[in-house]
Amino acid sequence: MFGDMFGNMEEKQKELRAKLATIIVEAEADNGAVKVSANANREITNISIDRAKIDVEDLEQVEDLVMAAVNRALQLAAEKEAEGSQSLLKDMLPPGMGDLPNIFG
User: Fold this and answer.
1) What CATH number has the domain bearing residue 59?
2) Residue 83 sits in which domain range?
3) Which of 7, 25, 34, 93 is deepest in the core (most CB within 10 A)?
4) Residue 20 falls within a domain, yes or no?
């Protein structure tokens, strides 16, 4: 029973990773001066800086805003990843045990 349940776990994880790669989250800092996109695999997919909203000569400000937006995007991506992982775990459990992950979360 458990062999079948966990035997295809690697395949399910690959499927989950592929699905998570298609889920994009976006975060911004300083009212859109810096925007960062990431996928639910916690990979940064894009960073954009609006020169009209930021003094690009102020390197410290640019760095701080990029860091804030990146951290927020990665936090959102981690939340999406957790949702996907919890869904995968539910799908792998035997019938009637689908709510088991909620006991721990």
Assistant:
1) 3.30.1310.10
2) 2-98
3) 34
4) yes
Q: What share of the chain is helix, strand, coil (3-state, %, to 5)?
A: 60, 20, 25
How many structural domains does the chain have? 1
First to last CA, the chain: 25
> CB–CB of 36/46 below 8 Å?
yes
Token pair belonging to 20: 């998570």
* 43-49: strand order across its sheet: 24-29, 34-39, 43-49
CB atoms within 10 A of CB 7: 10
Quick check: is 103 in a domain? no
In a domain, 104, yes or no: no
Is 34 part of a structural domain of the chain? yes
Task: Yes or no: say if 47 and 35 are a contact pair by the CB < 8 Å rule.
Answer: yes
Instruction: Kindly report, residue by residue over 47-99, the tens digit of the pLDDT.
Output: 999 999 999 999 999 999 999 999 999 999 999 999 988 887 776 666 665 55
What global pTM score does this model have? 0.77
The CA distance from 8 to 4, in Å, is 7
